[in-house]
Design a protein that fits this description.
The chain is α/β, with parallel strands linked by helices and 313 residues long. It has a single domain (43-312), classed as TIM Barrel. 41% of the residues lie in helices and 14% in strands. The protein has 13 helices and ten strands. It has helices at residues 3-8, 12-24, 28-31, 61-71, 89-99, 122-136, 151-155, 157-167, 209-215, 219-226, 256-265, 284-301, 304-312, and strands spanning 49-52, 75-79, 103-107, 140-143, 172-176, 181-183, 186-188, 205-208, 230-235, 271-274. The strands form two sheets. An eight-stranded parallel beta barrel has the order 1-2-3-4-5-8-9-10, surrounded by seven helices. A hairpin with a 2-residue loop joins strand 6 and strand 7 (186-188). The protein is globular, with a radius of gyration of 19 Å. The model is unreliable at 1-39 and 41-45 (pLDDT under 50).
Length: 313
């Protein structure tokens, strides 16, 4: 029996432990070895297109580095998750050096399923995410607005972000747009003070196009309101059905191309992170095909020609 077949038959928690242990034991010679990467099209501007580790789920964090290197992404956004490798800066640094793929963004653990990662205290989780980003040389930390039941966190959120920004000037803490929850023909806002962070105003934002679809908001309009404070883009499509879908860009109804061309035209200084769902992919090959298609879409619409066409329109 091969190692690959043996590992594929293990429970997920054992598999994560295995790859984490492998990363910890990675020899220094392997960590410094270069990894072949796809060539970026000459027409692409200097806007990095990176791969969120959430885009390879249910495969673990190390798989995202491997796929990012193979397909030619410019870097990785680490979604801090229950996966042990995503929580450990040392492991992430070894993976980054081994595959030649930098960590360019960190997504703080602020999902409902990650409320106990590192600590039940949201400030501890956010601070650790910022510290990890600084240690890894990542320029952005993505964070969600507070949940409505996190009253103290919500009350001090804006001031706390300012304090962290002062202590970690190399990291932009970018607040992400979210969406309301709809049940029984009613709409509930789970975020304080709102799912749209532009209603409050922050120094830096993350625009998530799939979340725009879920909230039935215009992504181009929100990008305009964010203005120069837009630091990070989560690229993923949606059908507008009122739920978060994270489709491959171009397979939904959202203005993914228009947003990319807008950013290219304004000489966007942030990063574009591919955040799509591939959990239903039947194989690694299909997952890689979806991610390669998404990368090509992003590069095409970030190209110089596309940006000029958008400005002329």
């Amino acid at each position: 029996m091969t190692i690959r077949r043996f590992i594929s038959g293990l429970p997920r928690v054992w598999f994560v432990s295995y790859v984490t242990a492998r990363a910890r034991r990675m020899p220094a010679t392997d960590a410094c070895r270069s990894y072949p990467r796809a060539v970026k099209p000459s027409a692409a501007p200097d806007i990095p297109v990176i791969l969120s580790t959430s885009s390879v789920y249910p495969e673990p964090t190390p798989a995202a580095f491997e796929i990012a290197a193979k397909l030619g992404f410019d870097g990785v956004e680490v979604m801090v998750w229950t996966d042990g490798a995503s929580q450990d800066a040392d492991i992430l640094d070894r993976l980054s050096r081994h595959y030649g793929v930098p960590v360019m963004a960190v997504h703080a653990p602020c999902l409902l399923v990650t409320q106990r990662v590192w600590s039940p205290d949201p400030w501890v989780r956010l601070r650790r995410a910022v510290e990890m980003a600084a240690d890894l040389g990542a320029g952005t930390v993505v964070v969600h607005p507070p949940f409505i039941w996190q009253r103290e966190y919500a009350r001090t959120f804006a001031d706390g972000l300012d304090d962290l920004a002062e202590k970690f000037p190399s990291v932009k803490i970018a607040v992400e747009n979210m969406y309301p929850v709809r049940m029984a023909r009613r709409e509930f806002i789970l975020y304080s003070p709102h799912w749209d962070p532009t209603t409050t105003g922050y120094a830096n934002y993350t625009l998530d196009i799939s979340h725009c679809a879920a909230s039935r908001a215009d992504a181009v309009e929100i990008a305009g309101r964010m203005g120069d404070a837009l630091a990070h883009l989560h690229l993923g499509d949606g059908s507008g059905a009122g739920r978060d879908e994270h489709l491959v860009p171009g397979r939904g109804t959202q203005p993914c191309a228009e947003v990319l061309e807008l950013l290219a035209g304004r000489k966007f200084g942030g990063t574009v992170s591919l955040e799509v769902t591939t959990r239903k992919a039947a194989s690694r090959q299909q997952r890689e095909a979806d991610l390669a298609e998404s990368l090509a879409f992003a590069r095409r619409h970030l190209s110089i020609d596309s940006a000029i066409d958008a400005l002329d329109a």
